[in-house]
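Running this now, will post back.
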Amino acid sequence: METLYHQTNKQIQEVQSLMGNLEKTDRQSVHLLENELQARIDQIFNHLERLEILASKEPPNRRQNAKLRVDQLKYDVQHLRSALQNFQHRRYAREAQEREREDLMSRTFTTNDADTSIPIDETLQFNSNLHNAHRGMDDLIGSGSSILNGLRDQRSTLKGTHKKMLDVANMLGLSNTVMRLIERRATQDKFIMIGGMLLTCVFMFLVIRYLG
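Update: finished.
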């Protein structure tokens, strides 16, 4: 298990390093880098499935610690996947806006018999402002989606960790008072997470309403 654990941890660090190159990669090559990152992330998830099986087969005195280490790796790679999806969403939106702008610039404008002119400059300015507003909305929605995914991942990890802490507490013979304190802290963390999700949704709604 140790060999596969260190190999998976190294792969996560390599993906983190490659993620920093996304913004610097040219448009012709960025999709290749995205595909490579996605393939590496999929491979890491396959390794994590194997690690979970191996962790469950560890001796009882080492099993809880092994599972916690695997959960930490899973938490890290889930954040990397969310970051990649967020970048792809922003790239798709930006490319669509650029295509729309090119179509608008290449469109042929004509005048009728009454010599009615079309205020092209004002139209372009309006569309530019509209695209900027859409880009801001897309960025906010993408960021909000990434935050919500991260909060859901944290909630899942906290629930698993909470259960394992209770198991460890039972193994060590801790008192009922200490166990109640642990449960109370987990409940507080849950309310904090729900409050953060609600505030994020309200903020996104207000921004979208303002830009609209």
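Confidence is low (pLDDT under 50) at residues 113-118. More later if anyone needs it.
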